[in-house]
Design a protein that fits this description.
alpha+beta; Immunoglobulin-like; 2 domains; nine-stranded antiparallel beta sheet; 2 helices
């Protein structure tokens, strides 16, 4: 009797192990690439001391059946060839599952040289567009998986 119960228990453990393995392998293969478009709009939200608060509007398509969280950003920002400072986020940003929409990204740029940055921003007041370059890393999380993505982008942004 005891031997039969142990054999049944071993079978159940093996079946459970196989099921867990199948679920893990399926979740690894189910990831589809998230498509991030070019910045469509930039809004100045405020300036305090050496911090510029902006809202970026970016089209994003997440074909996955799960949300993706942007946990942090550490990006160097250059405008028209002039280094401005470090861009980051105060709160995590959530990209909804199965979405295809323009996301609003509230970001903060901590400027290295306030006077030079203000001069660059002042020159932009009559411009229709500017060249934005960002280089650095973004940390994202989906389920229990975390990943650090290297970023190096340069594009023209319309104001």
């Amino acid at each position: 009797m005891r031997l039969a119960r142990k054999i049944d228990m071993v079978r159940e453990i093996k079946i459970l192990g196989i099921l867990i393995l199948v679920v893990i392998l399926n979740s690894c293969n189910a990831y589809e690439s998230v498509d991030i478009g070019e910045i469509e709009n930039v809004s100045l939200k405020g300036m305090v001391d050496n911090k510029i608060s902006l809202e970026l509007q970016v089209p994003i398509t997440n074909p996955n059946g799960y949300k993706i969280k942007i946990k942090s950003m550490d990006l160097d920002v250059t405008i028209n060839g002039n280094y401005i400072g470090k861009m980051g986020i105060a709160n995590e940003i959530i990209i909804p599952a199965k979405s295809n929409e323009i996301q609003k990204f509230p970001v903060d740029i901590v400027v290295k040289n306030a006077l030079a940055s203000m001069s660059t921003m002042y020159k932009l007041r009559n411009s229709r567009n500017f060249e934005l370059e960002i280089v650095g890393t973004i940390k994202v999380k989906a389920f229990v998986n975390s990943k650090t993505i290297k970023v190096s982008e340069k594009q023209m942004v319309n104001i």
